[in-house]
From TrEMBL:
Domain Peptidase S1: start-end pairs: 1-99
Lineage top rank: taxon: Eukaryota
Sequence intervals crossing the membrane: none
Gene3D superfamilies xrefs: Trypsin-like serine proteases
Pfam families assigned: Trypsin
Protein name in the entry: Serine protease SP24D
Keyword hit for Protease: yes
Gene Ontology terms for molecular function: serine-type endopeptidase activity
Native organism: Bactrocera dorsalis (Oriental fruit fly)
InterPro entries listed in its UniProt record: Peptidase_S1, Peptidase_S1_PA, Peptidase_S1_PA_chymotrypsin, Trypsin_dom
Keywords: Disulfide bond, Hydrolase, Protease, Serine protease
């Protein structure tokens, strides 16, 4: 539900979807200088990539939440790499919280 283009209004009425490609951590590190297993690095090969306001949005694969949008490495509307919180990295912590 982020912006559709840089500086544009937030898209609070429509949910847009994108096909994303998973990148190796080493490739992601070239873009932002960090190598962190808790980050899932994805990119959008389409010209409409991630944008401001997409933070907290889901990355879903086969109806399973795999990531939560955290940051982008370039301005929106470009072929952009994005850092997503890697949900599987926190699997045991999530289970511990749920189980109390």
């Amino acid at each position: 539900w982020g912006r559709i283009y840089e500086g544009g209004p937030l898209s609070d009425q429509l949910l847009y979807t994108r096909s994303l490609k998973t990148l190796k951590n080493e490739e992601c590190a070239k873009a932002d200088g960090t190598l962190n297993p808790s980050i899932l690095c994805l990119n959008s090969p389409q010209s409409r990539g991630f944008c401001e306001g997409d933070d907290g949005g889901p990355a879903v694969y086969k109806n399973i939440l795999i990531g939560i949008a955290s940051y982008i490495t370039k301005g929106c509307g470009s072929i952009t790499k994005g850092g997503f919180t890697n949900v599987s990295f926190y699997k045991y912590w999530i289970q511990a919280i749920i189980n109390g």
